[in-house]
Specification:
single chain; 190 residues; mainly alpha; Rhopdopsin 7-helix transmembrane proteins; 5 helices; transmembrane helix; EDG5_rcpt; GPCR_Rhodpsn
């Protein structure tokens, strides 16, 4: 928007970094929930039997990794000295950083889907005595949340992947990124 052009690079990195940190925290939190569900279904005892301690550790690790990942550009992984390496969508971010982050998020989302598929088969198996109607209802709810997240963010991830692989000014689509990010904004409303 119009405010962007008046920001210093430090202000821009802080603004965009905070957005990346919150997105990272969302993705890693979804992973933490999937891991916790898998552990609960499998009855595996990690860190003792204290579920709240395990969740606090997972959430804490999620935020720590998110802070590191979101802070990398302000710490130097940017394109300030190499303008030809800049992203079109996120102009001060290096294309390699954008590609790395989108790849990490995509791998994590695939891992989450794999965990929930595994959980689903455990819950549906005849050997799953622990799986009652509440477990199945929770699984359906989390699957819906995950599905909505992926559907809303897929256009943004797609445009960022395109942007990170296209030579500068060779692709017109990244200049229309606001349309792709509109779906991501819908995720916050849902």
């Amino acid at each position: 928007g119009p405010v962007t052009l008046s920001l210093t690079p430090l202000q821009w990195f802080a603004r965009e970094g905070s957005a990346f940190i919150t997105l990272s925290a969302s993705v890693f939190s979804l992973l933490a929930i999937a891991i916790e569900r898998q552990v609960a279904i499998a009855k595996v005892k990690l860190y003792g039997s204290d579920k709240s301690c395990r969740m606090l550790m997972l959430i804490g690790a999620s935020w720590l990794i998110s802070l590191i990942l979101g802070g990398l550009p302000i710490l130097g992984w940017n394109c300030l000295d190499h303008l030809e390496a800049c992203s079109t969508v996120l102009p001060l971010y290096a294309k390699h950083y954008v590609l790395c982050v989108v790849t990490i998020f995509s791998v994590i989302l695939l891992a989450i889907v794999a965990l929930y598929v595994r959980i689903y088969f455990v819950v549906r198996s005849s050997h799953a005595d622990v799986a009652g109607p509440q477990t199945l209802a929770l699984l359906k709810t989390v699957t819906i949340v995950l599905g909505v997240f992926i559907i809303c963010w897929l256009p943004a991830f797609s445009i960022l992947l395109l942007d990170s692989t296209c030579p500068v000014r060779a692709c017109p689509v990244p200049y229309k990124a606001h349309y792709f990010f509109a779906f991501a904004t819908l995720n916050s409303l849902l």
